[in-house]
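Example record for the data management plan.
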Amino acid sequence: MKYIKFIAFALLGLTYSCDVDEFLNPDPESLVTNSTFFSTDADVEQGVLGVYDAVQGIPEETTGSVITTNKGVQFEYLLTEHRTDNTRSATIEGSKADFHRYIVEPTNSESTDYYQSMYEVIFRANNILEYVDVADEANQTAYTAELRFLRAYAYFNLVRLYGDVPLVLSTVSPNNSEELYTRDDSTEIYDAIIADLEYAATNLGVATTKNRASKPAAQGLLAKAYLSIATPNYTGARQMCEAIINSGAYILEADYNDVFYNETGNDEVIFSIGYISGVDNDSQGFSSEFDSDVGRQDGLNIPNDNLVSAFTGDTGTVRSDFSYRVSLNDLDLYEVGKYFPDGISDGDFSSIIPRKAGNDWIVLRYADVLLLHVEAIMAGANTTTDGSALASFNAIRARAVGAEDDYALITQDDLLLERRLELAFENQRLFDLQRFGLDAQVLQDHATEMGYTFSTTDLLLPIPQSEINLSNGLLTQNPGY
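Corresponding structural encoding:
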């Protein structure tokens, strides 16, 4: 659960124009000038925690947050799951329903919010990196590693969703608009991501809490980054996955439900974004949107029949029983079985505010690492009989079916399906299709089935029009928008 309190910062004490402020720091709730704030180790750590707050975001239910306050990762399911064959909105009303139909415009408010939220993370990380030398010498390397992990996390999200984006790795003058608004090639973005994660993986320690970066978290995210680049580093990805596996620090929870509802006693989650139920600035709203009855709009993350068919065609029900269910509100709809607000699944929310839930958002868990391990060993091949790959894959299958289910050979189709079912509703499907080079094919087939209009230009989201306007045209748009 969330333990971090919100803090916002002025950028190096400089007077920034509102345009630049909107780009890298859209709406700070309070300002503390760095020259007066950063003077002790505790101040720097508080600054580090403030970066996590930018990832966390503010729920829509909080007064004044609908337009002016970034939501962090709380809209991420729209930009990811909705743009695959996994989920959709129950209606076609509002800008949130544009994602699943591939009609997102550059003015879309949720996409704009997410883009700005990730740059808010980057802004804060760059800012605090300037003051790490104020901290105790023994902590400086760890703080630097943590900040670079968070910056890499934000850029990893941005580059996969928007493609080429401005690469800003330090605090900059407001007069240097070229650096702020020039889109850098994705190769350079990935180089920066990998450099940050390699530093973090080398210099972070073991996990003391799931809500802060650690060596295993950096290793897992680095493995995924290695697999995502144009020429994948399969060897490096395998090494990172095996470092986590061989550490013995993580297991697959025997009860699949515990992964999502037993946060304190969970040995599968490696890194998550923490929230506290009922606390305005520390709760989240996505859990209520996964429910078809209590969100701001009824049913904003409805499982597609295609996904339900994939679950029902599987040989096991242990995992599917906890992944989705028939909606309590509408028997013609399914709803996500992960992330019920505060774990309440019977619809009785009299004791909580479901739009201010406390469920943590899982970024990386051990099951994901095991399947990445298989992917790294396959190294782009169509099949594998490698013993290590089989061990990782069959461990996932054993829990899924409630018994041994030993594969002697794994195909790419097996792996992609297993990732889809194991990680359904965890915002991984789009990125998996990207890495496997199947995004255009799968999404086109899905759009045809559903009656949507899809083009390969829809593989990337549009650069927010507000940012292009702020740049006076220096920031260019993605093709097709």
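Summary line stored alongside the record: The first strand starts at residue 87 and ends at 88.
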